[in-house]
Amino acid sequence: MALVGVLLIVGGAIFRLFGLYMTDRVLNGMEFAVILCALLLLLGGAIAVGGPLSLALLLLVAALALLITLMPQISAKVRGYTLMRDDIRRYEEALRRQPDIPFPHLKLAEIYRQQEDWDRAIEHYQAYIAIHEISADPKRHLERCLERKRIRDMGLRRCPVCGAENKRTNSRCVECDFYLKGMAEIMEALTTPDMMRLWKWLAVVFLVPAVAIGLLAQIIPPAATVGMLACSIVATLFFLYGRMRPEGG
Predict the structure, then answer these.
(1) In the 8-state DSSP scheme, what is residue 166?
(2) Partner of 112 for a Cys bridge, out of 33, 51, 76, 120, CB 3.0 to 4.6 A?
(3) Going by C-beta distance under 8 Å and a sequence separation of 6 or more, which residues neighbour residue 173?
(4) Tens digits of per-residue pLDDT, 24-78?
(5) 226 vs 224: CA distance, rounded Å
(6) To 10 degrees, what angle do helices 51-69 and 29-49 make?
(7) Is the pTM of this model over 0.85?
(8) Is residue 74 a contact partner of residue 19, using CB atoms and an 8 Å limit?
(9) What are phi and psi of 246, to 5 degrees?
């Protein structure tokens, strides 16, 4: 069953690779060939070795295949971030050349509002409104930014059910008793600097013995290998999630 599942994932990854190479032109010929060969060699090695070590290689192949499948989304996010930085640079340059033109202030305010950078968004909305007073939408957005900034500075959060303001430390809403702490808070607690160091060491501590146990499969039960590999993969996922957080977490 594990082999069939991995083969399906690898098939989807290879299909995605062809799309990235032939249609999207994200990969060149050399990159396409190297990734495809590495994937197929790992898959062949996983099938050939047998035993628990084969399961470890299959899990590695599945992880790589899933990463390949997500490459378009990752690439789109990187391109979007690059375009956003280019837009900010272009609008700031326009303001340096002509500081009395309101349009760059509006575009910068919208960019910073989408990034939830309330201080800069407020600054540019106020500059735009000061020059271009008859602007209903920017005034409305400015009020929302000011409100979000107030909530942030006071350490509050709004309940998504009743709209009541609660302290950031509250687990439940003071008005409707709705549970406020969700996955974001849980993941934030699991990716603090201390936890990141713990996940890094757990990934290594469980992975190395698991591979060694795989080579001694006749002596040690395969369940021990599977358990250690599972712990290593979970620790690695938490570590990578923490590394990819915008704050550096």
Answers:
(1) E
(2) 120
(3) 159, 161, 162, 164, 166, 180
(4) 676 778 878 888 888 788 778 777 776 666 767 777 777 777 777 776 666 666 6
(5) 6
(6) 160
(7) no
(8) no
(9) -55, -35
